[in-house]
Amino acid sequence: MIISHIIGGLGNQMFQYALGRSRSLALDVPFKLHVSDFAGYGLHHGFELDRIFGGDFAPATAADVSAVLGWRRSWICRRILINRRAAALRGPRLVVEPRFGYWPGILETTDNCFLVGNWQSEKYFLDIEEAIRADFTFARPPTVRNQEWISRINDCQAVSLHVRRGDYATSAKTLAVLGLLPRDYYRAAVDFVAGRIGSPEFFIFSDDIPWAREHLDMPYPCHFVDDNKGPESHNDMRLMSFCRHHIIANSSFSWWGAWLNPRADKIVVAPRRWFANDWDSKDLIPGGWVTL
């Protein structure tokens, strides 16, 4: 059995799921999700995959975790063992992402393991792209208002533009790792896309629409999408995926909004510097996407 540890916001959950799904298919074993750490988790909207998408997101039971990890099953043991200094005690069944970026060692894992990490690279699941797209099909039909947005998006050269602020702006710890993208990035990205398509219309998505209205000044038609809030925020990802082209933030949420767009001719602009620190993000950006 493959068990993926799931935690974080929706985009992170999707990466963690995709890696585990890929390994389970490659090894032809059952796949389950460990979601118990969401108990008392105060960020974002909790575990969302089973509520939003139509795939099979079976939770791992305590017996499943025990069967895979043995004495390492308790959260106290796992918390200790994910520390690099305790790596020798993990054994082959507790697999912890060793660094940010694609790790080829994942191909050598056993068919009975518990996966812990962010796993933020398309390289982990590109070989099962069709299965991942099927699993991440939105389960519920769009609301009337969202269907109106979809119709508007389908009627023009729609470009999604995502501004991520939220905890990036309010948490000193998050800000130190990720940072806020400068307005110059968005100006350059808009100019890049507008120089390559005719009559672009920009659909602005943000967790801080008032900031976006005040600070994004573009000589093109703009539509500020301000309908999907709280537990319904995932609908912004759905709307992004309908756009023809994308300008994403340093956010896994808009990364997936762009990736779920199946068009081969899409333009996706991503920030060259994804992190405020020195982490290398080259494996995070799919081939064919543009960095500015």
Explain how this protein is built.
There is one protein chain. With 292 residues, the protein is α/β, with parallel strands linked by helices. The chain has 2 domains: 2-135; 144-291, Rossmann fold (3-Layer(aba) Sandwich), CATH 3.40.50. It is built from 12 helices and 10 strands. It has a 6-stranded parallel beta sheet, with helices on both faces. It has a 4-stranded parallel beta sheet with strand order 2-1-4-3, with helices on both faces.
Question: Helical proportion?
Answer: 25-40%
SS-based structural class? alpha/beta
Number of strands: 10
Count of spatially separate domains? 2
What name does the CATH topology of the largest domain carry? Answer: Rossmann fold
Strand fraction equals 5-15%
Distance between the termini: 41 Å
The low-confidence parts are none
CATH C-level class of the largest domain is: Alpha Beta
Q: What summary fits the major beta sheet?
A: 6 strands, parallel
Question: What is the spatial order of strands in the main beta sheet?
Answer: 7-6-5-8-9-10
How do the SSEs run, as a string of H and E? EHEHHHEEHHEHHHEHEHEHEE
Which descriptor suits the 3D outline?
globular
Helix count, DSSP H or I runs of 4 or more residues: 12
Query: What is the C-alpha radius of gyration, as a whole number of Å?
Result: 20 Å
Mean pLDDT: 92
CATH architecture of the largest domain: 3-Layer(aba) Sandwich
Short description:
This protein is α/β, with parallel strands linked by helices and 292 residues long. It has twelve helices and ten strands. It has a six-stranded parallel sheet with strand order 7-6-5-8-9-10, with helices on both faces. Strands 2-1-4-3 form a four-stranded parallel sheet, sandwiched between helices.
